[in-house]
Fold this sequence. Notes:
By secondary structure, this protein is α+β, with helices and mostly antiparallel strands. Helices cover 49% and strands 18% of the residues.
Amino acid sequence: MKEKSTENSTTFEKMKSFQAFPKLLSNIKKGSKLTIKDIEFFEGIFGERIRKALEVIGANGVKRYLFSPSGVIKWTVQGQEKEYLVIENSFCSCKDFLFTALLRKEAPSCYHLLAREIAEKTEQFEEITVEDNLFQEYMNAWLD
C-alpha cells in the first residue's frame, strides 16, 4: 500500500492545489466521514498537514461566512495566529501557502486549504451569516 501512496505523492507533488484537490477529494462522498484509508492516502501526499487539517476541523475551526442579502460566501480556517481566508481549491492567505505551495512547490497546499476542502465535503463546518455592510471589515481582518 505504501508504494501506491508514494506514487500518488509523486504525481500530486507537481500539481497546483486547484488541479490536485478535485482529484484528491473525488472519492469522498458529500456528507461522509473520512476513512482510515482516506487519511493514509492524504498522509502520503500532505504528510503532517493532514493531521493539522483534521485537528482544525475537529475544533470547529472551518467557517463558511454567508453575507446577506448578497449571498456572497467566504470561507476561513483558524490558524495558529488568526483566521485565514481560503478560496476553493486554489488559495489561502497564510504564509505557509505562499512559501511552501507557491514558491518552493514542496506541497500542493497548506493545511488550511486542505481543512477547508475536507470540511466542505464532510459537511463539518460552522456557517455564519453576516450583514453585507460588514463585508469590507471582515475582508480587511482576513487579509491583514
